[in-house]
């Protein structure tokens, strides 16, 4: 419901509520569950003071004792199980859940997550909130994104289906009450962590509509989410926290109330790092005007936010009605959660902490862990392993006997590692396949030694003779980064108090991940130890990032350069490949488990520089393969790997996400065939980092990102995944050769299990528009179905595709359009043609004022804000950049062109050319200097010889901004 419609409705509701209450009524109307929700909210708002209404706009909403209202907190993390509140069921990472291509399974995972959130809520209602900040639906445009593990897919349709399933599960199936309230993250165009607060995502209108928004819209339309979170970045020059699309676009997708929340510190960034408004009062006011309802600021201290909001009212920047509107959205979610209803009315309110980590939840976690494993390769039927023939299994690699949590993971109540799970089935030999080294201070001849105490202690270089306590295990995470684990107590070395190195961490952890180091080789053969934690870029860190040995023998950060650091001799006690080969030699099968550490190989605030597997891990794979021909590689990560896996001499390769407490069982169940793999990749696996364009290129049609526009040969394509059985597609048919734009096409295909095992096939339907006014995707997923088949069984899978699903955003008229065009539908290698009768986009009519952002093509330009409040314009950053408008109807003679321009950088010109950026010059717009980038002025130029149907180019000779243009002339 729009703001305007709401403003008309609620005075009527208030009038109805002013009628006298029956004499027997004991509770105020907002406590009456039989009244319409809008009436109840209006009644409660009418009872709140302005200060109380404002208090609802912060993440931590205080209790209102006089009305018997308790405290409420927005935001419990729950991407793959409830996080940060204690031990809970931990499911596979989101990218793994999506890899099941099984919405029903994901719905069940969401239901358990919502149920356990209720269990935690019963423990502490004020802090353990029922507004869950999940799922993440940003499409996985680039696999180097540090938060790739949090999302579902590079495809918006698959993302929308999985998000809808998870959200419905979280909410529960009661017609009136929510089990918990899911919030979609992060709106919008958010896929970069480096400088994420100030980075500007430049997204042309068609990509914004057809790609980024398309991932968010399905769950909102299906009432599978109760709101969205604004993202940190700017979008086309404007911070998303003050982007009116929150209110104008997102809320237009549903008639249900949505609660729009800010990301942590996101609203204060508007006047802070983003410098978009001069102070927080103006920034917060702009956020409320744009549709933000809940501010996630200053942790539990709501005073700065509430004070600034009240100041904004006093300064006339927002009205009391604006505050009421935001408070109404917040209260709508609280009412749907049943907070104000009598005891016994809401069935979810009876949930107790006993549901947390329930036995049936563990079973579901194991099923999910197995079902998300993708069989990438299986030469000569290497898998599944036979129990009869596989008596001894070697399990090696950095991830063989450990499970890692990620930043948004819950706390695992137990850990089934690959070693532990496979030991249930066979005799196991194992090795982590890491170097064990000693470091010797070359200046003193003393060895670095660690404490044997469980809590660890500062490392010292005081021992003349090395012992077991001198051993350091080196884990290679790529990009030069290693972690060091002390053999003395099995703890990882961290940066401790006083900049000393301490062996105290169970595993790398924390926001700055202070367990990261680099062993930097020197010309004389020595090494220096460099600290590489995420906080090295902080100004308060200081310049000293290299380790020195102090006078007391302690290892501390004390040098600003390698030249002033302590030089160490690096003595290898045990080589990684030697220990791995020793474990693998003679085994019936060798399972090499390698991959990522979620706190190190990219995560929130930290993108990856490469998708290649670390060299040390690859060396272990090669050595084990040489020692044991029956080598299976398990890649465990939250993102795709590049490399030469398809040409390397490896019989079988599996991929799994960090799949939670049951990761080991999931892997073992697949390896031994208890589960026949059916998972499919939700992202393109590129052959090389060189296949990836600049991460800041959000226009996937120009950059070639994702399977939709990538024209190279991938390592593994989107949707890839093998099975232990085989399937054949036949009899692909469409129910009509021609479909109208208002109609739909039925598609069916027979799928036969041609193998000797029962299995599930994910049937994927793609389409391609063969002719169009615009650049169309190479192909696009339209539907999918997961079908279970017994050996020899055939089933017919049917799809219905509305022709409206084939629409795209037409920039020439700012609306969705179904073009008249031939389309090809494909399932596997089978294809069928369908003619779609829609519209033929007419020649562009620039006589109507045309927003410059609605160009057809461009080179070099960027998109910027027209005003701080609304609008998007085009800006050039260097001479020679251009925008073009294709197939423009100029008539018999176009006389002139006018444009709205801004230009704080000095006078310049914009050339009007026909046919190309170097085509015939027909006019020149003189752009004067303006006061600032938001000071717009009208300029015009006569046109000479501009007639007929032409491609019109605007070529910039310097920096300038254009908001819109209009051509005048004969028709």
UniProtKB/TrEMBL annotation:
One of its GO terms (molecular function) is carbohydrate binding. GO terms for biological process: arabinan catabolic process; xylan catabolic process. InterPro entries: BXL, CBM6, Cellulose-bd_IV, Fn3-like, Galactose-bd-like_sf, GH, Glyco_hydro_3_C, Glyco_hydro_3_C_sf. Belongs to the glycosyl hydrolase 3 family. Keywords: Hydrolase, Signal. Residues 848-968 form the CBM6 domain. It holds the Pfam family Glyco_hydro_3_C. Residues 1-25 form the signal peptide. Catalyzes the hydrolysis of a non-reducing terminal alpha-L-arabinopyranosidic linkage in ginsenoside Rb2 (alpha-L-arabinopyranosyl-(1->6)-alpha-D-glucopyranosyl) to release alpha-D-glucopyranosyl (Rd). It is not able to hydrolyze alpha-L-arabinofuranosyl-(1->6)-alpha-D-glucopyranosyl (Rc). The keyword Repeat does not apply. This is Exo-alpha-(1->6)-L-arabinopyranosidase.
């Amino acid at each position: 419901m729009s703001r305007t419609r709401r403003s008309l409705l609620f005075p009527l509701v208030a009038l109805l509520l002013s009628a006298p209450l029956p004499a027997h009524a004991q509770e105020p109307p907002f406590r009456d569950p039989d009244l319409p929700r809008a009436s109840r909210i209006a009644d409660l708002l009418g009872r709140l003071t302005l200060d109380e209404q404002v208090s609802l706009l912060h993440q931590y909403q205080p209790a209102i004792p006089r009305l018997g209202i308790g405290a409420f907190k927005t935001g419990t993390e729950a991407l793959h199980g409830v996080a940060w509140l204690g031990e809970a069921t931990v499911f596979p990472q989101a990218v793994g859940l999506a890899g099941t291509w099984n919405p029903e399974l994901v719905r069940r995972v969401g239901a358990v997550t919502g149920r356990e959130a209720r269990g935690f809520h019963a423990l502490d209602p004020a802090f353990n909130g029922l507004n869950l900040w999940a799922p993440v639906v940003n499409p996985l445009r680039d696999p180097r994104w540090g938060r790739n593990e949090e999302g579902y897919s590079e495809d918006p349709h698959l993302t929308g289906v999985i998000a809808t399933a998870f959200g419905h599960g979280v909410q529960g199936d009661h017609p009136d009450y929510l089990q918990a309230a899911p919030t979609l993250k992060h709106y919008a165009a958010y896929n970069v962590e480096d400088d994420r607060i100030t980075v500007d995502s430049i997204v042309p209108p068609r990509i914004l509509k057809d790609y980024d928004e398309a991932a968010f819209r399905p769950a909102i339309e299906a009432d599978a989410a109760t709101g969205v979170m604004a993202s940190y970045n700017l979008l086309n020059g404007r911070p998303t926290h003050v982007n009116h699309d929150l209110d104008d676009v997102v809320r237009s997708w549903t008639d249900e109330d949505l609660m729009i929340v800010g990301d942590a510190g996101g609203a204060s960034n508007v006047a802070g790092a983003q410098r978009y408004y001069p102070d927080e009062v103006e920034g917060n006011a702009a956020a409320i005007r744009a549709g933000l309802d809940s501010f996630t600021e200053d942790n539990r201290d709501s005073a700065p936010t509430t004070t600034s909001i009240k100041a904004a009212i006093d300064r006339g920047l927002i009205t009391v009605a604006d505050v009421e509107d935001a408070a109404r959205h917040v209260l709508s979610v609280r009412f749907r959660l049943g907070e104000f209803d009598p005891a016994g009315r809401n069935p979810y309110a009876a949930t107790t902490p006993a549901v947390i980590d329930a036995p049936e939840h563990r079973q579901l976690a194991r099923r999910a862990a197995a079902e998300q494993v993708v069989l990438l390769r299986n030469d000569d039927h290497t898998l599944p392993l036979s129990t009869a023939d596989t008596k001894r299994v070697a399990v090696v690699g950095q991830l063989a006997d450990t499970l890692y949590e990620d930043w948004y993971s819950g706390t695992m109540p137990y850990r089934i590692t690959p070693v532990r799970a496979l030991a249930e089935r066979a005799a196991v030999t194992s090795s982590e396949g890491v170097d064990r080294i000693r470091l010797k201070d070359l200046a003193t001849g003393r060895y670095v030694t660690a404490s044997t105490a469980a809590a660890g202690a500062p490392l010292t270089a005081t021992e003349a003779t090395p012992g077991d306590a001198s051993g350091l295990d080196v884990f290679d995470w790529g990009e030069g980064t290693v972690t060091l684990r002390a053999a003395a107590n099995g703890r990882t070395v961290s940066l401790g108090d006083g900049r000393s190195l301490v062996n105290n961490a169970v595993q790398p952890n924390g926001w700055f991940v202070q367990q990261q180091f680099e062993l930097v080789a020197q010309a004389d053969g020595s090494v220096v130890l460099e600290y590489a934690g995420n906080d090295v870029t902080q100004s308060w860190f200081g310049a000293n990032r290299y380790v020195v040995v102090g006078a007391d023998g302690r290892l501390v950060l004390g040098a600003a350069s390698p030249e002033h650091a302590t030089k160490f001799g690096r003595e290898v006690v045990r080589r990684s490949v030697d220990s791995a080969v020793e474990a693998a030699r003679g085994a019936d099968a060798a399972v090499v488990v390698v991959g990522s550490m979620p706190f190190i190989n990219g995560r929130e605030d930290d993108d990856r520089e490469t998708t290649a597997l670390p060299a040390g891990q690859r060396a272990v794979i090669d050595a084990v393969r040489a020692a044991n021909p029956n080598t299976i590689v398990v890649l465990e990560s939250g993102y795709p790997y590049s490399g030469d896996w398809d040409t390397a001499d490896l019989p079988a390769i599996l991929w799994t996400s960090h799949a939670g407490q049951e990761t080991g069982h999931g892997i073992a169940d697949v390896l031994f065939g208890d589960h026949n793999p059916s998972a499919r990749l939700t992202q393109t696996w590129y052959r090389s980092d060189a296949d990836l364009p600049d991460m800041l290129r959000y226009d996937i049609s120009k950059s070639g990102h994702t399977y939709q526009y990538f024209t190279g040969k991938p390592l593994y394509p989107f949707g890839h995944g093998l099975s232990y059985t085989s399937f054949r597609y036949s009899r692909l048919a469409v129910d009509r050769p021609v479909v109208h734009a208002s109609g739909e096409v039925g598609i069916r295909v027979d799928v036969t299990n041609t193998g000797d095992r029962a299995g599930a096939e994910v049937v994927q339907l793609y389409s391609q528009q063969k002719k169009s006014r615009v650049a169309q995707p190479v192909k696009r997923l339209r539907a999918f179905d997961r079908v279970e088949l017994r050996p020899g069984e055939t089933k017919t899978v049917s799809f219905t595709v509305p022709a409206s699903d084939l629409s795209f955003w037409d920039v020439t008229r700012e609306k969705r359009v179904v073009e008249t065009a031939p389309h090809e539908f494909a399932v596997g290698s089978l294809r069928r043609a369908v003619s779609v009768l829609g519209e033929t986009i007419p020649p562009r009519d620039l006589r109507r004022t045309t927003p410059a952002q609605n160009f057809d093509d461009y080179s070099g330009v960027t998109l910027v804000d027209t005003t701080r409040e609304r609008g998007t314009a085009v800006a050039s950053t260097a001479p020679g950049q251009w925008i073009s408008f294709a197939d423009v109807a100029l008539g018999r003679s176009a006389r002139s062109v006018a444009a709205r321009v801004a230009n704080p950088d000095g006078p310049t010109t914009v050339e009007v050319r026909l046919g190309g950026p170097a085509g015939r010059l027909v006019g020149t717009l003189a752009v004067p200097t303006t006061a600032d980038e938001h000071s717009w002025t009208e300029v015009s130029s006569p046109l000479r010889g501009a007639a007929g149907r032409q491609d019109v180019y605007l070529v910039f000779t310097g920096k300038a901004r254009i908001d819109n243009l209009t051509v005048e002339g004969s028709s």
